[in-house]
Structure formats: structure tokens, C-alpha cells
Write a structure and sequence with these properties.
The complex is a heterodimer of chains A (about 250) and B (about 600).
Chain A: H1 2-24, H2 27-35, H3 39-52, H4 56-68, H5 72-85, H6 90-100, H7 114-124, H8 128-151, H9 155-188, E1 191-194, E2 198-202, E3 211-216, E4 220-227, E5 230-235, E6 240-244, E7 248-250
Antiparallel strand pairs in A: 1-4, 1-7, 2-3, 4-5, 5-6
Helix pairs in contact in A: 2-3, 3-4, 4-5, 5-6, 8-9
Chain B: H1 2-22, E1 27-30, E2 34-36, E3 40-47, E4 52-55, E5 62-79, E6 82-97, E7 101-105, E8 109-112, E9 115-118, E10 122-127, H2 141-146, E11 155-161, E12 165-167, E13 172-180, E14 183-191, E15 198-203, E16 212-216, E17 219-233, E18 237-241, E19 245-253, E20 269-277, E21 281-286, E22 296-309, E23 313-315, E24 320-330, E25 346-348, E26 352-360, E27 363-376, E28 380-384, E29 388-393, E30 398-403, E31 407-412, H3 459-478, H4 480-487, H5 489-514, H6 517-536, H7 545-554, H8 559-577, H9 583-605
Parallel strand pairs in B: 2-10, 12-21, 22-29, 23-31
Antiparallel strand pairs in B: 1-3, 3-6, 4-8, 5-6, 7-10, 8-9, 11-13, 13-17, 14-19, 15-17, 16-17, 18-21, 19-20, 22-24, 24-27, 25-27, 26-27, 28-31, 29-30
Classes of the chains: A alpha+beta (about 250), B alpha+beta (about 600).
């Protein structure tokens, strides 16, 4: 009887604690915080959720909370993260464009040959994984077309299958190439966002390095190299230098 | 007749007399506001009608030295034939105060025309006697003062500041007062400081300077107010008010003493100018506490806010007025006009502001009336939000926010265009962007997936490449016979040769009917060449009449048929360019071709 009560008590205790931790953060509670305009709480909640996994919506909502509580850099970083997973996320694109209007730095990108930039932009149309899936899809169609070509007795069908298959093969190669290109770009020179109000870019990975230029919160840059706490960055206008890793967030 | 005239005249006279009696009886008491003790002064009761039985109240604090003396004056006025007569009776008492302090002499009563009237009560401030002046010399205050020497003690100007420590935008009253114990004739060229750092509001004073007595540092002075200013500090810190200067003209007794009998009656006087300068004053201004409410725009004091709307339901294109009244006491002039957030669709006009302020010694008081005019252009239900107005309350030293109520507005469709008038323009308008903000968060149910990694190049990716590839290869291996058959294009073409040739001949037959000779022969030639090309699996370009014979022989076509085929080709080519237009010949060629293809088909199939 006494033991039974004790067990019951412990169970109640456990239930209480587990209840608290479960109620702490769900997308719904975070959305409620956001609706109540308590953006800091919403931010904390989304941060908690982002430890467990990811989704474009989660990054997007987190970015919104960041923006509303005044963290421009974090907001841009997370919009970019959302768009990295889903480049077709309209709301994220809209908000990113809006927030980007509010950052301090205006960086004019280097002019490149139009074909090169065109090809590069084509690669940015999809994420690496989306390119890969698209490639696989093309590959399946290609195989199907091969079978149709071999086993169909209608001449027009064979002809269509032949050309479709040929086209699909080229598409497959293109998609997989882009998938690899995008992946390597992100592994070798990942993009990052400045998270602090302003930072000084130096000529060497050292506090005593010559100060080259200043970047402000929200600016986008590419990480070329890393060395200890420092990383070499390059900005869209071609300037490069060294900064502390902790001041930026990789997309 | 004359009698009647007299009667009317008497009647009129009586009426006019009646009107005189009907006038209000005024019964007033008057006495100086301040008086040094020991100095006699006059208490006068004035009544504007013949009266009797004056009863004055008990006045234990004063001694009645003399009185009552009664004096009467009478005046008659005829204006535009209206006669008015005034009788004034004055009862004068001469009193002397026994002790210092402020005393009130209560109401006296009098009977006029069998009716009892009450006078006002009088408050008298009894000042202590001058410390230096011996009481025996005091025969009259004015005379006493006039005999004084012209020193800085006897004539000076003093800035009297109501408050030395104020909040920013909270008023302080500065009164420039002249203190004099001499016979002051005039004040000339007064120069007031520029009150740097203050918003200055001058208080209007009556034209007639009011003299009063005041005890200052043990002496009694005749004082009057030169000018009064309300100062609203605009910045915090210690603000200095620089001195004011003026020239005083004083009448003093001539230095030359003429010893004669008349001297005591006719003194010789001369006017002397003396420049006066007040002391500088420092006002300590405290800043307003922080944080201020968001809508605080600098109003300090004590205010009330009210609003009203002229209609709550109207039709489109009708005007709408909202009146906002801010009334109270404070820095009214600095109040910014609050803005009403009308619905975006409204045409809003510049608000009309009516200021009704008066400067009093307790600050600028009054009402600021703001009229907002708006015209709704479209029908619908609208809400005009509440207007908030924040001010710093001086009494409680805290910020207070006043708010009006929000108005619900029902706008009905207006009769905007009168019937019969054709308008060229449409009522459409671009959707106006009211502001830009980020879009709202995603609220649909979304799945949180584990962190993604790159898919390309992983074993899964390669699995999806190799697996279908292998399946395809297996399928090809299993069904290779079918594939091989399909791959034999020559065989396919062989099979289809007859069909193609017949299709061509059909076209030829159509042209035969129409009589298009050239097209007909063209089609027949194409049918023949195409047929052998398909059957022999040779491109048309490689074919000619010489090698066809050899090829057809190998396909076991009889020589006769080969010869017939060649002849047919020759006939067609010849007929095509021949001038003769022979329908019979064309018929003949068509039937020969049909027959030949049918026969050859059977031969080659074997």
C-alpha cells in the first residue's frame, strides 16, 4: 500500500517533468509566441526545434522571429538556409529581398561574362539534391525510352523514343553535373552571412593584421579557406581577407 | 385736449421714475488691501440709492477713529430723451488697526426702499509698522513715503519668481515689481531680458497700475507690478535670467530750503531720474523623466481630451468631421496636433486648429480645438481608431495618456455620378501599397526532417543509377530476339514497301482525276522508285536503271517483269515531259503500275 503510493508519486513526478519538456517547444507554441508578438520567446523556441531537425518552413519561421526581434544577420542567414533546401520558397524569397534592403553594405558583384553567369544562375535554380533527383528522374526516362526503342514495333514510336532517350541522357548528364558542382561549391567555398553589427576584415589571420575593410551585419560572403579560429573570406566584389569564424554563420 | 396731453406726460414721467427705482441697488464696501498698522485708513460704504439704517458689523481688530461721515452726490443724465438719475451716498469711517495680520470686515447691511441689502466683505492686510520710522510722524502713509530719501533701499525693482525649480516645459511666473518709498512719478524705458531658453508668454495687466502696500524686510513699500511673464523652459539645466533695467522718475523736494511762511504749504519739488536694475535670477530646470511614452510630444501640464464626430453613418463622398479638444493648463502652444489614422481609402485634409488660450498667473490655460476633415471615397464599414495623447502631469510628476474612443463608421454607397452624365473615366485604381513588412510565418503543418546531407555521390545515388540500369539490361537480354527483329530496319521497310507504294498511287489517282499530268507522273515515279528502294534496302540515291535489273534478279524477279518495270519507268519519264495530254495514256500507266507492284510483291515475298 505504502510502496504503491510512492510509485504513484514518482510516476506523477515523471509525468510532470516530461509534460513540461514536451509542452516547451512545438511548432504550434512557437507560432503562438510569434502571434503574441513575443518574438524573443519564439526565436528561442525555434532554436530549440532546429536542434532536432530542419525544414524550410522551420528556418523561415525562425528567420521571421529573428527579424522581428532585430537580428538582421540571423534572419538573412536562415532565409538563405530555407532557400538552400527549397529554392522555390516564395515567402522566403520575398522576405529575404525585403530584409536585404535594410542591410548597410551594398556590394556590387564583379562583372562576369554573361554566359558564365547565365550557367551559374542556372545551377542555382535548384539545390544540389534537387538536381540529383531531377537527374535520376531523367535517367529513368532514358532507360524507359531505351526499352521502348528496342521492343516497340511501331516505327514512329521507335523514332520518338530514340530522340527522347537521347535528350534525357543529355539532361541526366547535365543535372548530375550541376548537382556535383553545387555540392562542391558548398563544400569548398560555402557562403556565409555576417552576424555581428560590424567586423573588420584583416590581411592576415591575426589580430595585428592590417585592417582592409569593414563589413556590416547581413552581408553575404564566401568562405575560401579556414585556419584555426580564422577563415579567409571573399566578398562578391572580389575583395578578400581574414576574419574570425565566430562572427559569421555559414548557410 | 390739453388735459389729455398733460395726463399722458404725467403718466410717462411716472413710468420713467418707476424705471429708475427698478434699477439694481448696489451696496459696496471698499478699503485699501494693505495698510501698515497704526496708520489710519478709510472704510467706505457706497450705495446708489437713498437709504437708511446702515449697520456695520463688529470690528474688534480696528478702532473707529472717526465717522461715519455721509456724503451724497446726485447726477442726472438725459440720453436720447431717456433720463437717468443717479444718487450716490458714501458713508466713510476712519479706522486704525490695532495689530498686524489679515482681517476681514464682514458684510454691512442697509435698508433701501424698505428692503435690506448686504454689502461685500473686505479683507485688509495689516502690515507691521516701519522699523525705523517713529510712529508719531505718521500722519499719512503717502506723505510719509514722499519725505523719504532717494536711496537704493527706498526704490528698487524686484523679480518675483513663483518657482525656482521646475521641470522642462513647466511654467514659472516671473513678476517684475517696483518697490518704492518715494514719490514715484514715472517708469521710463523699461528693458526686459530676452529670457534665453524660455518660451515667453506675457500676462496682460490692466492699463491702470494697481498700487498696493507691502512689507518687505521690515519696511512698508508702495508696490506695483511692472510686467508679468510666464516662462516655459525649453531645455534642462540651470537657466539664467539676466537683469532688467529701467529709469525711474522720482519727485523729490528741492534741496534749497526757502525759509518763508509759505514754504510749508508750497514745497518746491524737482523730478530726478534714477536707473534701476533688478538682480539676475537662476532657474533650475529638471529634465523630464525617461522613458517617455511613445506618443509623447512634449506636452507638460494638466490636460483633458475629448472628441466628437459629426456623423457615424454617411454615404461615400460626403465629408466627415472629427473634432478633438485638448483643454487644460500647460504649455498649450507646444502641443503638437495628434494625428488620426483614418482608413487608407479616405481622402484626408489638413486639420484645422483653433487655439483659445489665455495667459493667467497660473499658467497658460485654454482649449486647443482640432478639426479633422475626411471624405470617404468608397462604401464600407470602417473603424477610425482612438487617438491617444500623452502628457507629463506636473501634479503627480508622471506621464499620463489620454485616449478618445474609436469610432465605427458605416459608409453607404454614394450617388457619385449624377444620372445622364456620361463619364469617360473608370473608377479603378491601382492597389496602393500601404507599407512593407515581411510575410507572416508558415502556419501549416510541416514536417521537421533530419538534417539533410548531399545526395549526389552517395551509395544511395549510385544504387538508383545501377539498379534500373541492370534491370534494363536484363530485360534486353531476355527479350533480345524481339529486339533484334525490331532492329532489322531493312525488314521493316520491306514489309512496309507495298503499303507505301499504294499510298503514293492513291495520291496519283487523285491527280489523275483532276488531270494534273505532271503531279500524276511524279507520284507514280516516286511510288515505283520508293518501292524498289524499300524492297532492296537501298537508298534511292544509289539506285539507277542499270543496277536495279541486277538487284531485282537476285531477288528472283523474272526478266519479263524487270523489263516491264524499266519500260514503265521510261514511259512515265517520257510522258511527263510530253506535250500530249492523253487521259487514256495516264489511265493505262496507272493500271499497269498497280498490276506490276502487286505481281512483284508476290514474287519477292517468296
Amino acid at each position: 500500500m505504502w510502496i504503491n503510493r510512492k510509485i504513484k508519486l514518482i510516476l506523477a513526478f515523471l509525468a510532470f517533468f516530461s509534460g513540461v519538456s514536451a509542452a516547451e517547444c512545438t511548432p504550434e507554441t512557437a507560432a503562438n509566441y510569434y502571434a503574441d508578438k513575443s518574438y524573443h520567446e519564439a526565436m528561442a523556441c525555434y532554436e530549440e526545434l532546429l536542434r532536432t531537425g530542419e525544414s524550410p518552413e522551420l528556418y523561415y519561421n525562425y528567420a521571421n522571429s529573428c527579424y522581428k526581434s532585430g537580428h538582421l544577420g540571423l534572419a538573412i542567414l536562415n532565409y538563405e538556409k530555407a532557400l538552400k533546401i527549397n529554392p522555390f520558397y516564395d515567402d522566403a524569397k520575398f522576405n529575404l529581398a525585403l530584409v536585404n534592403q535594410q542591410i548597410t553594405d551594398k556590394i556590387d558583384p564583379l562583372e562576369t561574362f554573361f554566359l558564365v553567369s547565365w550557367l551559374e544562375n542556372l545551377g542555382k535554380l535548384f539545390s544540389s539534391n534537387q538536381w540529383a533527383y531531377l537527374g535520376l528522374f531523367c535517367f529513368f526516362i532514358f532507360l524507359a525510352m531505351v526499352l521502348v526503342f528496342l521492343f516497340s514495333s511501331w516505327r514512329w514510336l521507335r523514332k520518338t523514343a530514340f530522340w527522347t532517350g537521347f535528350f534525357m541522357l543529355i539532361l541526366f548528364i547535365t543535372c548530375v553535373s550541376y548537382s556535383y558542382i553545387e555540392r562542391n561549391k558548398q563544400i569548398q567555398t560555402p557562403e556565409a552571412i555576417v552576424l555581428v553589427g560590424s567586423l573588420v576584415v584583416r590581411s592576415a589571420p591575426d589580430e595585428s593584421g592590417t585592417e582592409l575593410f569593414v563589413l556590416h551585419e547581413g552581408s553575404k560572403l564566401k568562405v575560401k579557406d579556414e585556419l584555426g579560429d580564422w577563415c579567409e573570406i571573399v566578398v562578391a566584389d572580389g575583395n578578400s581577407g581574414w576574419i574570425k569564424k565566430s562572427l559569421i554563420g555559414k548557410i | 385736449m390739453k388735459k389729455i396731453d398733460k395726463l399722458i406726460f404725467l403718466l410717462l414721467f411716472a413710468l420713467s421714475a418707476q424705471s429708475v427705482w427698478a434699477e439694481d441697488v448696489s451696496f459696496t464696501a471698499s478699503a485699501p488691501g494693505a495698510i501698515p498698522s497704526g496708520t489710519p485708513f478709510q472704510l467706505v460704504y457706497t450705495v446708489n440709492a437713498s437709504s437708511k439704517d446702515l449697520r456695520i458689523p463688529e470690528i474688534p481688530d480696528f478702532d473707529i477713529v472717526a465717522g461715519p461721515f455721509t456724503s451724497q452726490s446726485h447726477s442726472t443724465q438725459i440720453v436720447n430723451g431717456n433720463m437717468t438719475s443717479t444718487t450716490t451716498i458714501r458713508y466713510t469711517y476712519t479706522l486704525v488697526a490695532k495689530k498686524e495680520g489679515t482681517f476681514t470686515i464682514g458684510a454691512a447691511s442697509i435698508v433701501v426702499n424698505k428692503q435690506k441689502y448686504q454689502s461685500n466683505s473686505v479683507t485688509i492686510k495689516v502690515l507691521p509698522p516701519d522699523e525705523e520710522a517713529p510712529a508719531s510722524q505718521n500722519s499719512g502713509s503717502q506723505q510719509n513715503i514722499a519725505t523719504q530719501q532717494l536711496t537704493a533701499d527706498n526704490l528698487f525693482v524686484l523679480p518675483v519668481v513663483s518657482r525656482y525649480k521646475v521641470r522642462e516645459q513647466e511654467y514659472t511666473l516671473v513678476t517684475y515689481k517696483i518697490y518704492s518709498r518715494v514719490d514715484l512719478v514715472d517708469i521710463q524705458a523699461p528693458k526686459f531680458p530676452d529670457f534665453k531658453g524660455f518660451l515667453v508668454q506675457e500676462i496682460d495687466l490692466p492699463q491702470q497700475k494697481r498700487l498696493s502696500m507691502e512689507n518687505y524686510k521690515g519696511k512698508n513699500y508702495n508696490t506695483f507690478i511692472l510686467r508679468q511673464f510666464l516662462l516655459y523652459p525649453q531645455t534642462s539645466g540651470t537657466l539664467k535670467i539676466s537683469p532688467m533695467t529701467c529709469d525711474a522718475v522720482v519727485r523729490i523736494r528741492s534741496q534749497q530750503q526757502v525759509r518763508s511762511f509759505f514754504d510749508s504749504f508750497f514745497d518746491t519739488y524737482q523730478d530726478v531720474k534714477k536707473s534701476l536694475s533688478s538682480a539676475a535670477v537662476n532657474i533650475e530646470v529638471l529634465p523630464l523623466p525617461k522613458p517617455a511614452p511613445a506618443d509623447f510630444s512634449g506636452a507638460v501640464g494638466k490636460f483633458t481630451l475629448s472628441s466628437n464626430i459629426n456623423k457615424s453613418s454617411l454615404s461615400a463622398n460626403e465629408s466627415l468631421t472629427i473634432q478633438l479638444k485638448i483643454s487644460g493648463n500647460g504649455n498649450m502652444k507646444m502641443i503638437k496636433t495628434p494625428t488620426i489614422k483614418f482608413p487608407a481609402d479616405f481622402e484626408v485634409y489638413e486639420p484645422k486648429v483653433i487655439n483659445d488660450f489665455t495667459n493667467t498667473t497660473s499658467g497658460v490655460t485654454g482649449t486647443k480645438t482640432i478639426e479633422y476633415l475626411a471624405i470617404p471615397r468608397h462604401a464600407g464599414k470602417f473603424t477610425i481608431p482612438a487617438v491617444t495623447f500623452s502628457y507629463f502631469d506636473v501634479a503627480s510628476q508622471s506621464y499620463k495618456t489620454l485616449s478618445t474612443s474609436a469610432y465605427e463608421l458605416n459608409v453607404e454607397k454614394g450617388t457619385s455620378t449624377a444620372g445622364g452624365v456620361v463619364t469617360n473615366f473608370t473608377n479603378q485604381e491601382q492597389v496602393r501599397l500601404l507599407g512593407s513588412d515581411i510575410r507572416y510565418i508558415a502556419v501549416n503543418d510541416f514536417d521537421i526532417k533530419p538534417f539533410s546531407t548531399f545526395f549526389v555521390g552517395t551509395w544511395r545515388f549510385w544504387f538508383w543509377i545501377w539498379c534500373p540500369l541492370l534491370i534494363t539490361l536484363l530485360l534486353v537480354v531476355f527479350f533480345r530476339k524481339k529486339a533484334k527483329e525490331n532492329a532489322d530496319i531493312a525488314l521493316m521497310r520491306n514489309k512496309h514497301a507495298n503499303k507505301v507504294a499504294r499510298k503514293r498511287l492513291k495520291v496519283a489517282a487523285k491527280n489523275l482525276k483532276l488531270g494534273n499530268k505532271e503531279v500524276f507522273y511524279d507520284e507514280v515515279l516516286k511510288a515505283l522508285w520508293g518501292y524498289v528502294s524499300d524492297k532492296l534496302a537501298m537508298p534511292i540515291a544509289e539506285l539507277n536503271k542499270e543496277n536495279i535489273a541486277a538487284r531485282l534478279q537476285s531477288k528472283e524477279v523474272t526478266d519479263a517483269k524487270i523489263k516491264e518495270f524499266i519500260d514503265l519507268l521510261n514511259d512515265c519519264e517520257f510522258a511527263r515531259y510530253a506535250p500530249a495530254d492523253d487521259a487514256k495514256e495516264m489511265d493505262n500507266v496507272y493500271s499497269r503500275t498497280m498490276a506490276l507492284i502487286t505481281e512483284m510483291e508476290q514474287m519477292i515475298k517468296k
